[in-house]
Amino acid sequence: MKITRVDAIPFAIPYTKPLKFASGEVTDAEHVLVRVHTDDGVVGVAEAPPRPFTYGETQAGIVAVIERIFAPQVVGLTLTEREVVGARLSRTVGNPTAKSAVDMAIWDALGRTLGLPVSDLLGGFTDRMRVSHMLGFDSPAAMVAEAERMRDTFGIRTFKVKVGRRPVSLDTAVVRALREHFGDGVELYVDGNRGWSASESLRAMKQMADLDLLFAEELCPADDVLGRRRLVGQIDIPFIADESVPTPADVTRELLGGSATAISIKTARTGFTQSQRVHHLAEGLGVEMVIGNQIDGQIGTACAVAFGSAFAATARHAGELSNFLDMSDDLLTEGLHIRDGVLRRPAGNGLGIEVDPDKLARYRTDH
Ligand code: MUC
Ligand code: MG
């Protein structure tokens, strides 16, 4: 169970449909495959998705920090020393997706070694989650058509609508068009990616007050502490903190400070070890959780559904597990499939997934 090597392999797979939102746009999955090898010949995998606009990480930076800083700190430890891994990695600030991919690849290797699914090791609540699909910026007609395609093809009936454009009516018109088109046959919520000011957010929420939204997420800048707290105090649906809670300490501060009333858990940024802490904190403080998506590929999505299906509170709401549908290809031998609006976690030990060596050879960009 001793870690002998950690690989960080950059790869690039184009999207068939770019995702646009208030803080950026994604056209290619330029991610990093992380592999943790052990002296038993076991290999655990995970992926790190660089999101420069959210965490300041780049693909080259993730490869460099893993190869030069993190790998030497974890080689020689055993797979059960995850708290030691965490303590060593936390000497370096930031780099959340690089740290998380190392953590999750270790969990995958542990599950494979023990002959158990990671999801069962974490909590084992269920083997599936309902899926929520993100609708990126476009016209109301195009976003309704995209939602219809997702419902008809994959049975998805929960949609997170990207908002944060100006004037706010550009986005509120989309949400209204979706509600008018689908009636109460779908669940809707909005995510501003910090695009609006607190007062614009309040105006938009008033315009959408009759649209039966489930949640509002990160509508305005988190560092506008007072504006955001005032906003959260004036809306009557749970306000999800996403970019403002990259660590468990941030979760505590945001919830106790009254600047959030729900939490997005993204395994891409808190791995499995820290996501457990986020889950336990949110549960203890009595707020709802949504499994978020860092625009993950299928490896990242397998991680998200492994965690989300492990606990009652995270399996309760639809998880954001569908961004991989917009990629032109992926790295797995057996792809993930969403049917009737549900994603089952892959059966098998660890994460239950295998990287296809031919696909990796085709998409890796380091040679
Ligand atoms: C989301 O929930 O915000 C877009 C930007 C980011 O950091 O994550 C994605 C999805
Ligand atoms: Mg978000």
Summarize the structure.
This is Muconate cycloisomerase. The protein is built from 15 helices and 13 strands.
Structural notes for this entry:
- The chain is 40% helix and 21% strand.
- It is an alpha/beta fold.
- The chain folds into 2 domains: 1-114, Enolase-like, domain 1; 118-342, TIM Barrel.
- Strands 4, 5, 6, 7, 8, 9, 10, 11, 12 and 13 form a 10-stranded mixed sheet that branches. It has a 3-stranded antiparallel sheet with strand order 1-2-3.
- α2 (59-74) crosses α4 (96-114).
- The protein is globular, with a radius of gyration of 20 Å.
- The two termini are 30 Å apart.
- The model has no long low-confidence stretch (mean pLDDT 98).
- Bound molecules: [(2S)-5-oxo-2,5-dihydrofuran-2-yl]acetic acid and magnesium ion (MG).
- The site of [(2S)-5-oxo-2,5-dihydrofuran-2-yl]acetic acid has 12 residues, from loops.
